[in-house]
Amino acid sequence: MARVTDLICYPVKGCAGTSVSEAVLTPAGLAHDRSFMVISEGGVFRTQRRHPRLALIRPTVSADGSRLVLGTGGHGSVSLEVTTSAPRRDVDLFGTTFQGIDQGEDVAIWLSEVLGSPSRLVRVPPEHDRIAEGLVSGPSGYADSSAVHLLSVASLDLLNRRMAERGAPPLPMDRFRPNIVVDGGWAGEPHAEDRARRLIIGGAELGYAKPAVRCAVTLVAQEAGARRGPEPLRTLAGYRRAASGGVVFGAKSAVVAPGKLSAGDEVAVTEWGEAEL
Prior knowledge:
The chain has about 280 residues and is mainly beta. It has helices spanning about 105-115, 155-165, 235, and strands at about 5-10, 10-15, 20, 20-25, 30, 35-40, 60, 65-70, 75-80, 90-95, 95-100, 120-125, 130, 140, 150, 180-185, 195-200, 205-215, 220, 225, 250-255, 260, 265-270. The longest helix has 13 residues, at about 155-165. It is globular, with a radius of gyration of 18 Å. The relative contact order is 0.20.
């Protein structure tokens, strides 16, 4: 049977992820996932597309979300008490205006030094009401689109085999920044996640929203915080090009029913559909 082999949370959008053995799945995704975001002084979100060094920043958030620590080699760390009561400010995410709660000067100074560009940190407000569209729509924090990104080991294995045919070295799973990694059973077929419309994992349920369209973030070696050549986009373009023109790899999902997830949980598909490719 298909099972969860990894759960990864990304508390700060664009920064490093943390692999966990269990997690609470909220209506907006894994608890604390993409609940913080680095922005420019003008409020525009920072991304690895332009600031690959974000990948070197490792966030640690307390279980109740009240404390956040950011650390990276060479710059030490910064710790903050998370505020949800400070004044709101406008933030720009892909041209759409949302609200964010600024987390203060200490973390802003630290981030500006690490990234080499004036930056600030904001948190999703409790009243955040963003709904990400898709076949199944649902709440989302500061994620690019839908709340959960699911990817199978088999899909990555196939990509690495195709890249090997080009003489390119294999890539690790972290290049694609998934939340839930699955393997075995139905997930042993590459890209079967494209057709899984409803999934039961532990006590939670996910609904397929859309394929994951890949961008230049996949070119960033996460452990180095730097771009590394044309892969995987060059190879993906040869066999995973969508009708829209982009390349797709993995599936985005909305949360239909919250619950608790654990590594090793069975992943059961209760509804199948046709792949959108």
